[in-house]
Each structure stands twice: as C-alpha cells, then as structure tokens.
Specification:
By secondary structure, this protein is mostly beta strands. The chain has one helix at about 1-10; strands at about 65-70, 75-80, 85, 90, 95-100, 105-110, 115-120, 120-125, 130-135, 140-150, 150, 155-165, 185-190, 195, 200-205, 215, 220, 225-230, 245-250, 265-270, 280-285, 300, 310.
C-alpha cells in the first residue's frame, strides 16, 4: 500500500509507452498565451498648420504709363476738305510703347471750327485757329491747327431746285409782290460732307455766258447740307429757312430788269468757279432729258442726293408748286451727316 501511494505521488501522470531504445515522442503542449498586446499609442498630433499665404501667381504689377507723345505731329495748316490726324503713342515704365490714339480723350478749343467725332480724327468745319488737347491718365498733349475754307469743286454742289416760271401762284421771294422776273429762283445745295467757299463764283446761262446772272458775294460759305437760293429780284428779308440763305441776283445789267433771265421753254445754266471751271450745271427744255414745265419748279428727287429732276409737286415730301430750301427743314435735314448739324 505504501508503495502504491509513493508511486502515485512520484510517477508521471502521462502514459509511459516508451520502451528501451524507443524515442520519446512526448509533446510539449504548453501554449505560450502571453500575447504581446502592447500597442504603440504615442501618436504625433503636432499638425503642421503653417500655411504659406504668399500667393505666387507669377504675375508682375502692370507697367505704369510714363509719357504720351504725338506719333506724327498733327498738321499745322489744313482746309475744311482735310481731316486732322491725331495719333498718340504711350510709353510705359517697362520700356514698352503702344498706339494709344483710340484711348486718348480729345478736346477741341472751338468745336465750331473743328470737332473730334471719333478718336484720332479731327473734322474741320469752319475757318479759324483751334487747339486740340489729348489727355490720358493725367498726361497731356496739345496741338494747334489753322483751318481755312476749301473752295467748292466739281461734285460738291448741285442745282437742287429751279423755278423758271415766276408766274406761279404765290409769292416765292416773300416780299408781298408777285412778279414773273423777281420770283424766279435757283437753289444751290452743298451735297458734299465738307464746308465749301463760293466767294466770287458765278451763275451763268448759255445765252449770256459772259454776262453772269449772279456773282456770289465774298464770304458765301455753305456747310454740308446747307443751301443758298438766288432770286431774280425783290426783297428776301422775310425769308429765314433753316440752314438756307436767300439772296437776290447781283449781275451787270441792273438797268435792265432781266433778273436771272430764265427762259420758260429751255435753258442751260452753269455754276462757274473763279478760274472759269464749271463745277455744277442744269439744263431743261429742247435737246435735254428734262421737259420744260410751267407753273412749277424743277427739283431733284430725292432732293439734293437724287439724280433725276421732276415736277415739284411729285417730289418726295414736297407741298405746293415751289418751296425753296424745303429740303433742309424739319426731318429732312436729319438725313445729312450729323457731324455737321449746327
């Protein structure tokens, strides 16, 4: 019994199947359960929040305007047939330059003499001296031009209306005295876009070429769209049509009351400059394309810019049998270049 107890206390509890010469096949079943759960929780929370606020857009500040100058010096002397070229160059701090003609602000010292209707172009309208100032961002230039009147030449003027039969009903010259000679008239209109001078020009008719029916006085000037009516005689002081002048014929046969000496059956008239060159003409009656008419005037249709003449009654916008200077009244004048509106 004692032996058994000792054995129970000392002997291994596993089955000992090993025999002499056998290999011990006993397994180590002791599992290492000591898991390494130690986690590195040391987190780097030091966030780098420093922002580079210096925006690098790669753009340099725009260059500064340092000066403006005339690209080409404006003309000193011009006529109303010319235009004044206003070309400006702008220079900048980076050494560059550019044409600034369209960016400059232009001011004329007298817009009745010359006006800048579009950038870089000065349009002369009347005779005189004028200063044009160009300004850009505080920089300023000025130029002075002397404007003279251009003489009328071929294509500038037209015979807009002619009344050869002064016996029409009414009183064309407005003097209260209807007269077959004095109420005849010829209207000359400026169909060009420039102001022209008619001083010394003569109105002649074929049969009396060397005895002008009228000589235009010194200082007779027509702006674009304006007209002048020459009556055979009488008093025209009561007439004051818009943009039109009414005068009485001045000729060399005042002792004989021929006036304009217009023949009802036909005539060939010319407007002649001081050099003897015909700048405009009008013919009617036999041998012409315009049939002679009575009791009414001939008028261009449409007025001023038309190519054909007609009985005044049938002209666009006409009323009655005559109306000298009617085309420049009311809305008709608005059709002309607005640059020259008074």
């Amino acid at each position: 019994m004692r032996f058994l107890l000792l054995c129970l206390a000392a002997c291994p509890s596993g089955d000992d199947t090993a025999k002499d010469g056998d290999t011990e096949v006993g397994h180590d079943s002791g599992n290492d359960t000591g898991d390494d759960t130690g986690t590195d929780t040391d987190t780097d929370t030091g966030d780098d929040t420093a922002v580079d606020t210096g925006d690098d857009t790669g753009e340099l500040p725009p260059p500064e305007l340092v000066a403006i100058e005339w690209t080409t010096l404006p003309a000193t002397d011009i006529t109303t047939r010319d235009t004044l070229a206003l070309q400006v160059t702008a220079s900048f701090s980076d050494g560059s330059s550019t044409d600034a003609s369209a960016m400059v602000s232009y001011v004329s010292s007298d817009e009745m003499v010359l006006k800048v209707y579009e950038p870089g172009v000065g349009q002369p309208i009347w005779a005189g001296s004028v200063t044009v100032t160009a300004t850009l961002e505080g920089h300023e230039l000025s130029a002075t031009a002397n404007v003279t009147l251009a003489s009328a030449t071929t294509g500038d003027l037209v015979f807009n209306e002619v009344l050869a039969d002064g016996t029409v009903d009414g009183d064309p010259n407005g003097d209260g005295n209807p007269d077959a000679v004095e109420d005849e008239f010829v209207e000359i209109a400026n169909a060009s876009d420039v102001t022209v001078d008619l001083s010394g020009y003569t109105l002649v008719e074929e049969d009396l070429y060397y005895l002008p029916r009228h000589t235009f006085a010194e200082g007779t000037v027509l702006r674009a769209g304006e007209a002048i009516v020459v009556f055979g005689g009488g008093d025209t002081s009561s007439l004051a049509p818009t943009n039109c002048t009414a005068v009485v014929a001045v000729n060399g046969d005042s002792a004989l009351e021929y006036g304009l000496a217009l023949n009802n059956e036909g005539e060939n008239m010319s407007l002649v400059d001081t050099a003897g060159t015909t700048v405009a003409g009008f013919a009617y009656g036999d041998g012409t394309d315009i049939e002679a008419i009575e009791d009414a005037s001939y008028v261009l249709s449409p007025e001023v810019y038309g190519t054909d003449y007609t009985h005044h009654t049938y002209a666009t916008g006409s009323t009655g049998d005559f109306s000298a200077c009617a085309y420049v009244d009311g809305t008709a004048y608005a059709g002309h270049d607005a640059r020259y509106s008074p």
